[in-house]
């Protein structure tokens, strides 16, 4: 049964530093604001800042008329805001290496989350592979839990993970010698990239950031995207760390108040002047493109070699590849493989990555039950 839409001035998707800062500014000025976050147990509460928060609530659709569909407690609610602020954060950059699909291989930040909030204590030797500050953070967390990573491999050459049912070893080249390390858990890390699913769904313009090797939404100085009434803040706009995310969220909040007619442009600018963030980019290195035998699309088991072959046959856009190979059509809907697919096609065809683009996104952006989706269609 479809309930009446929930009306609010601003819906904020994501309650990390950016979303929380935006919600606090808005609620502090008396605007009606709803912040939804999929983390936590399902609950509705009013924060100290006066913002309404739904935790354990997953936003999975944003329609052209700015209706946000949110799944909570097994049923979906339509939220009708005047403005939407997308503060959905970042995702780990996909890091395809031979054997990365084996059970026991994690993104290092995901592994850290499992240890810090999921209570996981690794009971097998851990190897960390990649680069950047994150590996140091995970290494320290392992140490604090009494589990020492047996090795941290910074961009090793010829690296591969081996095992039958799960990862049992990592090997790499030291000069011409192949060395092998026994392990049961691997944490891979190659940095973060903005999470752009919602932005792409609603048609926001993206640009290719060559220096950071990622697509990111085009926004103005206040977080307004190319789509009216849709703002983007924090890592979802540009991955620059916690302080910058909070500043960006607050700036978006002040401009949202201006758009709601609650403050003047001059008042907004006065409030934002002190908030312009000091940029901080975590140190991380993006890996090279995978060799031909490496699986890139984990869901459909499509290799880098198959993607390169498709580009040689004339595929010029990520979406064209779907029809040929089912690449990007599995449960993750290309969220994981998409960035690598774009770079592979670009490198093979000689086109700019921006022209190749990412896969078109499809709803639901997060898995929900068919029964729940069906209930959202008016009878
Ligand atoms: C392990 C780790 C350590 C870090 N250490 C540092 C550090 O030392 N210093 C530093 O400056 N930065 C650090 N960072 C980065 C910092 O956490 C981020 O830059 C910052 O959290 C970005 O804030 P954000 O609000 O943009 O996104 P996030 O904090 O990622 O918040 C996004 C939120 O959106 C929610 N969300 C996403 N999609 C949906 C959806 N469809 N429906 C509902 N909710 C959704 C998520 O649940 C999440 O809570 C670290 C990051 C990690 C992962």
**What best-fitting shape do the alpha-carbon axes yield?**
globular
Structural class: alpha/beta
In terms of per-residue confidence, which ranges show pLDDT below 50 for 5 or more consecutive residues?
Answer: none
Number of domains: 3
Q: Give the end-to-end Cα distance, rounded to a whole number of Å.
A: 9 Å
CATH-defined topology of the largest domain: FAD/NAD(P)-binding domain
Number of strands: 21
The CATH class label of the largest domain is: Alpha Beta
CATH homologous superfamily of the largest domain?
FAD/NAD(P)-binding domain
> How large, in whole angstroms, is the Cα Rg?
22 Å
Approximate strand percentage: 25-35%
Q: Short summary of the structure?
A:
This protein is an alpha/beta fold and 379 residues long.
Compile the SSE list and pairings.
Layout: E1 6-13, H1 17-28, E2 33-37, E3 43-46, E4 52-55, E5 57-62, E6 68-72, E7 75-86, E8 90-92, E9 105-107, H2 108-116, E10 126-130, H3 133-144, E11 151-154, E12 157-162, E13 169-174, E14 177-182, E15 185-189, E16 192-194, H4 197-201, E17 206-209, E18 214-217, E19 230-232, H5 242-259, H6 265-273, E20 295-297, E21 302-303, H7 304-312, H8 318-325, H9 338-349, H10 353-356, H11 370-375
Parallel strand pairs: 1-2, 1-7, 2-4, 7-19, 9-15, 10-11, 10-15
Antiparallel strand pairs: 3-4, 5-6, 6-7, 8-16, 12-13, 13-14, 17-18, 20-21
Helix pairs in contact: 1-5, 2-3, 5-6, 7-9
The structure holds flavin-adenine dinucleotide.
């Amino acid at each position: 049964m479809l309930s009446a839409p929930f009306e609010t001035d601003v819906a904020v998707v994501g309650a990390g530093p950016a979303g929380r800062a935006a919600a606090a500014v808005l609620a502090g000025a008396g605007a009606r604001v709803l912040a939804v976050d999929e983390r936590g147990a399902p609950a509705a509460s009013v924060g100290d800042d006066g913002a309404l928060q739904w935790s354990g609530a997953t936003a999975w659709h944003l329609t052209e008329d700015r209706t946000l569909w949110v799944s909570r407690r097994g049923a979906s609610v339509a939220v009708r805001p005047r403005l939407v602020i997308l503060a959905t954060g970042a995702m780990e950059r996909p890091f395809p290496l031979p054997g990365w699909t084996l059970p026991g291989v994690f993104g290092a930040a995901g592994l850290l989350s499992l240890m810090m909030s999921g209570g996981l204590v690794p009971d097998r030797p851990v190897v960390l592979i990649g680069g950047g500050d994150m590996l140091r953070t995970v290494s320290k967390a392992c140490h604090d839990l009494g589990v020492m990573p047996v090795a941290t491999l910074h961009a090793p050459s010829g690296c591969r993970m081996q095992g039958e049912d799960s990862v049992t070893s990592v090997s790499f080249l030291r000069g011409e010698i192949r060395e092998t390390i026994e392990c049961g858990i691997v944490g891979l890390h190659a940095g973060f990239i903005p999470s752009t699913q919602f932005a792409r769904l609603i048609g926001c313009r993206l640009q290719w950031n060559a220096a950071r090797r990622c697509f990111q939404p085009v926004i103005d100085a206040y977080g307004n995207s190319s789509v009216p009434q849709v703002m983007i803040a924090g890592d979802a706009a540009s991955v620059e760390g916690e302080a910058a995310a909070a500043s960006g969220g607050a700036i978006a909040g002040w401009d949202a108040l201006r758009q709601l007619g609650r403050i003047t442009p001059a008042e907004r600018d006065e409030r934002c002047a002190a908030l312009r963030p000091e940029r901080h980019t975590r140190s991380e290195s993006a890996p090279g493109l995978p060799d031909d035998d490496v699986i890139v699309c984990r869901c459909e088991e499509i290799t880098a070699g198959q993607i390169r072959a498709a580009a040689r046959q004339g595929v010029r856009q990520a979406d064209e590849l779907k029809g040929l190979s089912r690449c990007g059509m599995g449960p993750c809907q290309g969220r994981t493989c998409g960035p690598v697919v774009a770079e592979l096609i670009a490198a093979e065809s000689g086109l700019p990555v921006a022209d190749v683009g990412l896969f078109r996104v499809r709803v639901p952006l997060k898995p929900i039950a068919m029964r729940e989706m069906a209930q959202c269609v008016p009878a």
